[in-house]
Amino acid sequence: MRAFDTRLVRHLHAARRYLILTVCLGLVTTALVLAQAGLLAHGLAGAARGSGLSALRGTLAALAVALLARALCVWSGEAAALRAATIVKSQLRRRLLAHALRLGPAWLTGQQAGEITTLATKGLDALDPYFARYLPQVLLSTLVPLAVLVRVTAADWISGLVIAGTLPLIPVFAVLVGLHTKARTQRQWRLLTALGGHFLDVVEGLPTLKVFGRAKAQADIISKVTDEHRSATMAALRIAFLSALVLELAAALATALVAVEVGLRLLAGHVGYETALLVLLLTPEAYLPLRAVGAQFHASAEGTAAADRVIEILNTQEPASPRPIGPHGLAERIQADLSVEPLVLANVTLAYPDRRRPALSDLSIVISPGDHIAISGPSGAGKSSLLALILRFADPTSGVITVGDKLVQEIPIGDWRRQIAWVPQRPYLFAGTIAENIALGDPDASLDAIKRAAQFAGAEAFISALPRGFDTALDERALALSAGQRQRVALARAFLRDAPLLLLDEPTAHLDPTTAREIMTMIETLMADRTVLLVTHGAHPNVSSVLNLDRGRLVMATAPARVSTS
User: Fold this and answer.
1) Is the predicted pLDDT of residue 566 greater than 50, yes or no?
2) DSSP class per residue in 271-302
3) In this structure, what CATH number is given to the domain that contains residue 405?
4) What angle do CA 472, 477, 479 make, to 5 degrees?
């Protein structure tokens, strides 16, 4: 963990005025502390000299005002700091999720879902102490001791020298302890993300674990990881308490040193009573900001450990999409029409970083408008990777994909995907109504259009039988629906989208034979007047050609005039 992380500070732009307000209020509070100490020393010295209450009334009134103003400034500064932290956390959370979406499914499949979830929730929430307390305190820890030192030196230069000599001890001890904190905190965070990911896997796979009698074993593993996280957390807390002890001890010894030398000189008559009181009242205030920085450093350690991973994700490069430059130096908006232009893959290779063998190797195919192509092959042959390339979930490692004479990467990704309807193996239905899930195919579609799409997909009957029909709310992943019903909703999306290119990734792979036949009947209706790529292990419906893939290579094609190997 860095004392001042410039990578995080770059995200402060939206909350800059709140941070400035926090620091300004901290400086006003410092001025009030100086005034309060001076008034209190003056009042106590006056009382010691025998001044009456009437003589001290003005001093006491001013002291009361200073105390109230100080309390108001502290409260306002805390509120402004928390507001700054909330804005920055919200901004980071939005950027993290937006960037993860831009990186796409090809990147997400190589990540741990539990880690991303933990980062976006608890991880960023743990940044509150960093932005709300630690960061403002870093700035104040420089300005406040300097202001106190100047005031003490003006009153008693000997005490000023003692304070100036002992102040550097606090940050030195804080740095020494902080070096040990980083490793402990990072281990704590790694264990937390591992615990979150493992717990998510166990919850999702609980039926399988119960069937095979392994639920107890997984519970023992979770208990072990939990104990490791508890131990790491307690180790981090021990370091935090040790840090507090060291800083408090150093500050107490320094304050005692000032008190001893002031007391001896007071007894000798070399310093006045009011001056001695002022020095003793202000000396702890010189060390307090530095002690507070140390405490907030440890309180914000977990948040900054999580932020390291967030920033690493934000710095991950998105797939490059070249934009041609027109004659006037402006980026041209390249358009393509899949209903009339062929889609060509020329010598395309796709290699994933974590795999030794390319998913696709030197693949060349031509998909003409109106083609109905079945793609077959064993598991791992590259069928889904081919669809991922066309969907632009991944970019080719080598080779080119063109539409007409235009590179696919030059076409705005939103314009490109609007021409594609996709039905995956396991369609995802989101929490919301059935109508809203179908409307993913066309967010501007009317209810009548949604109902017509459901009718074409054979879904209208079971939807109408539900208590609220199309307004029926689905829970997470729509577990209340059967697999066949979920597939019909996905087909309704594809009907509603009415895109010229239809991609079907084994749409009947997990259905019983009767339901599979019904779905294939709907699919043949959906295929009319569209270009279709159908990934299948079973019998091919009415298609114009069949591509057989094996280990990422095209081994056989039934339409050599349209499909070529290189």
Assistant:
1) no
2) S-HHHHHHHHHHHHHHHHHHHHHHHHHHHTHH
3) 3.40.50.300
4) 70
Listed in sequence order, the residues at least 6 apart from 176 whose beta carbon sits closer than 8 Å to its beta carbon are none
Edge-to-edge strand order for the sheet containing 545-550? 420-423, 501-505, 531-535, 372-376, 545-550, 553-557
Q: Are 36 and 67 in contact (CB under 8 A)?
A: yes
Do 436 and 505 fall within a single domain? yes
Q: How far is the C-alpha of 346 from the C-alpha of 535, rounded, in Å?
A: 20
Residues 308 and 347 both lie in one domain: no
Describe the chain by its helix, strand, coil percentages, rounded to 5: 65, 10, 25
Residues 76-110: tens digit of each pLDDT: 988 888 888 888 888 888 888 888 777 777 666 66
How many CA atoms are closer than 13 Å to the CA of 3, on its beta-carbon side? 15
Residue 13, domain CATH: 1.20.1560.10
Neighbours of 109 (CB within 10 A): 13
Q: Which helix (H) or strand (E) holds 547?
A: strand 545-550
- The residue among 536 and 402 whose pLDDT is bigger is 402
Query: Which amino acid is it at 37?
Result: A
Please choose, from the candidates 11, 226, 223, 189, the residue with its C-alpha nearest in 3D space to the C-alpha of residue 115: 189
- 492 Cβ partners below 8 Å, 6+ apart? 438, 441, 450, 453, 454, 456, 457, 459
Q: Give pLDDT tens digits for 183-208.
A: 666 666 666 666 666 666 666 666 66
d(CA 420, CA 532): 10
Q: 161 and 22 share a domain?
A: yes
Report pLDDT digits (tens) over 419-441.
Answer: 888 888 888 888 788 888 888 87
Tokens 């107890």 belong to: 216
Q: Is 243 inside a domain boundary?
A: no
pLDDT reading at 61 higher than 50: yes
Tell the burial category of 188 from Cβ atoms under 10 Å away from its Cβ (0-12, 13-18, 19+).
Answer: buried
CA angle 383, 491, 431 (to 5 degrees): 100
The string of pLDDT tens digits covering residues 447-496 is: 888 888 888 888 888 888 888 888 888 876 676 788 888 888 888 888 88
For 97, the domain range is 6-183+251-313
Q: What is the pTM of this model?
A: 0.60
280 and 352 part of one domain: no
Half-sphere exposure (Cβ direction) of 304: Cα atoms closer than 13 Å? 26
Separation CA 361–CA 483 (nearest Å): 34
φ/ψ region of 398 (left if φ > 0, alpha if ψ in -120 to 50, else beta) reads: beta
